[in-house]
Amino acid sequence: MRKLALLALGLVHLPAFAFSHVDLYRSEVVVDQDDSNAEEAARIAGMKEVIVRASGDQNTLDNQAIQKALSNSAHYLAQFSQGQADDKATLKMTFSGSQLRDLFTQAQVPFWPENRPDVLVWLVEENRYDRTIAWEHSDSNILTSLLAQAKVRGLPFTVPVGDFDDITGIEVSDLWGGFVDPLRQASKRYQADAVLVVKVQGPQLRWTLYDQKPIMLGQTRQAPLVGSASGDDAAKEMVNKLSDYFAKKAAVVVASESSESLKVRFSEIDDGVSFFVLENKLKALSSVASLDVLTIKADTVTFNVHLLTSAQEFEQQVNSMGLVLQLEDTVLPSQTETAAANPQSQVQSELAGGALPIESHAQDAISMNSAQVPVVAPERVLNFQWQGQGVHPDFSDDQPHLDENVELEQ
């Protein structure tokens, strides 16, 4: 019993990790009843919000693959329901996390994981020479705006509760004057990962971010980040800048190839213009996230196509281009499949080399090899014949180019 008590006391002094788990994939959007496509517009707006929150980068919406996915937003919707907010009809949506992460991989855009730093926010407002601290339950419009925008961006904010310890632990002048020691003493009771001090003067915000745990304030040479914003969207601008900052530190681009990919081979590509036209046509398909040139052999080009939809839909869209003739698919059996299909020959080879006893263990060896070798499904390659000779590329678009790393087969 005494050992358990000592262990419990020891755990009290362990450092606490304040990272918060953010729900990335939920969104609620007001439905414009005057819009004939109100539900679709709300669904796209909700998906945009989720994409920015999950990627941490507002520029993600400009990505070509993301743009295509937005036009098919229903594909990524897991569930939805009707709601109400401020006497207005809303659409509550939950998007599929796995499908969006696959989309990010295909589009090669960053993903900001759900576990994010918790930021302690000290907000001081000046009103006619009277300065007050905004506590957790304060009736403050600017605080409400900050918290709402932080929720949109998925940046966890913690506001001091304003109890006796808070009120007696720090003065308004300490925060306004930027004194670090009292800030550290007042903040260390909160298990935050960073401390933000915001000073409000009319329409202007000035902020200082200490990107370190409260207990470390003033103990290191790490300089704080400072910034300002003004106008009606000052709160939104500040939160966006802070979110961008934290996202750049933690977001990652998943470099592995998407499982939703397909090899496609085109023959009769006998000149560079045909290649450019074909590549542009494929990239323009709504089912295509991106494509890589795998090999160029004589007049045949093989692509690895990363898909936003099913392989069947991609196949239909390629045929609808009107510039190709579909040929019979090629099936490429894998080596593991070949070995698994004929374990007898492998065992006979081992027996011949003296690796196994010839009589007593031959049958056991066959069974062993059959169990250990995994059966991998054969790889399917779509084959098409290009019939678009003489079609000129659209030079209004960015011109495609051959990757220097493309394997050229003789």
Automatic annotation (TrEMBL):
Signal: is it a keyword of this entry? Answer: yes
Q: Where is the composition biased (Basic and acidic residues)?
A: 394-404
Q: According to the UniProt entry, where is the signal peptide?
A: 1-18
Region annotation (Disordered) maps to 389-410
The keyword Signal belongs to this UniProt entry's keyword annotation: yes
Keywords recorded for this protein, A-Z: Signal
- A Pfam family of the record is DUF2066
Q: Which InterPro entries match?
A: DUF2066
Please, which domain of life does this record's source organism belong to? Bacteria
Q: What is this protein called?
A: DUF2066 domain-containing protein
Query: What species was this sequence derived from?
Result: Vibrio xiamenensis
